Amino acid sequence: MKRYKTLAESVRFRREHGTWKPIAHDECLSFGGEGRSAVVYRIEGTDKALKVFYPDKVHIAKEEADIYKLLSGISAFPALHESGGTYIVIDWIDGKTLFQCLEEGIDIPVELIQEADKAILAARKRGLNPSDVHLRNIMVADSGQIVLIDVARFRQTKDCMNWEDLKTAYTHFYTKPFFPKRIPKRLLNIIGVMYKKRLLPIYWRKAKGIIQHP
Ligand SMILES: Nc1ncnc2c1ncn2[C@@H]1O[C@H](COP(=O)(O)OP(=O)(O)OP(=O)(O)O)[C@@H](O)[C@H]1O
Ligand SMILES: [Mg+2]
After folding, report:
1. Is residue 98 within 6 Å of ligand 1 at its C-beta?
2. How far apart are CA 133 and CA 159, in angstroms?
3. Which fold has domain 4-91?
4. Were 83 and a residue from 39, 48, 88, 134 both cysteine, which residue would form a disulfide, CB within 3.0 to 4.6 Å?
5. Which residue has the higher pLDDT, 185 or 209?
6. Per-residue pLDDT for 210 more than 80?
7. Total-model pTM
8. Which DSSP string do the residues of 120-176 spell out, in sequence order?
9. The CATH fold of domain 95-207
10. Within 10 A of 40 (CB to CB), how many other CB atoms are there?
């Protein structure tokens, strides 16, 4: 098999309308997903994922690799296999993000939320400050296990309420019988933007003390 570094170098990007788009990659790589910092591929014939950072985000590769080393041994985080200047290689997770679960109407039982909570606590015990834990950064493996990916911001010092707010939304909305279990992608994206702009009722209710974090 080709070296991970060679595979990472095969990924080429082009800037389009202010975002990076992957325009070429080795045939051993199949697209897995993309985010604000990187594109992720499965290395075919293996259970490994190659995360290649965009040209202006390559500094994150070392930071994320260092954090994965600190999380080593906690089963809810993928293991790190290698890292280089522009990439990391971690376990490939066969499964879906919580975002995809909502989009497809796949039930998210409370046990998964509890497992994710335990993983976040375990990360805190290792001196980290889990941040940026959002619906696309939490996966449910086909085995049923919860896996937290994208740990690059786990050492930031600023407190991030994402996970606490997700848990609040889960308890106060998702579990209610009237709440739809399937939400179209466009609406989920709109909710995400409104959340960032603090325009969701969760903020008003929190401000009035109607909602407290579970
Ligand atoms: N190990 C993995 N196994 C399977 N799919 C993955 C894996 N890592 C990432 N993905 C997919 O790729 C997407 C982007 O990955 P990731 O969240 O690591 O990128 P990012 O650019 O750091 O994201 P963000 O926008 O949250 O900063 C994920 O939402 C997920 O769908
Ligand atoms: Mg992400």
Report:
1. no
2. 12
3. Phosphorylase Kinase; domain 1 (3.30.200)
4. 88
5. 185
6. no
7. 0.93
8. HHHHHHTT-------GGGEEEETTS-EEE---TTTT-SS---HHHHHHHHIIIIITS
9. Transferase(Phosphotransferase); domain 1 (1.10.510)
10. 19
Distance 95 CA to ligand 1 centre (A): 12
DSSP per-residue codes, 49-91: EEEEE-GGGTHHHHHHHHHHHHTTT-TTSPPEEEE-SSEEEEE
Ligand nearest to the CA of 140: 1
Residue count of the chain: 214
Ligand 1 atom with the smallest distance to the CA of 53 is 21
- Confirm if 186 and 194 have CB atoms less than 8 A apart: no
Q: What are the structure tokens assigned to 114, written together?
A: 């509890």
Say whether pLDDT at 39 is over 70.
yes
Per-residue pLDDT band for 206 (boundaries 50, 70, 90) equals low
Is 149 close to ligand 1, i.e. is its CB under 6 Å away?
yes
Q: For residue 148, is pLDDT > 80?
A: yes
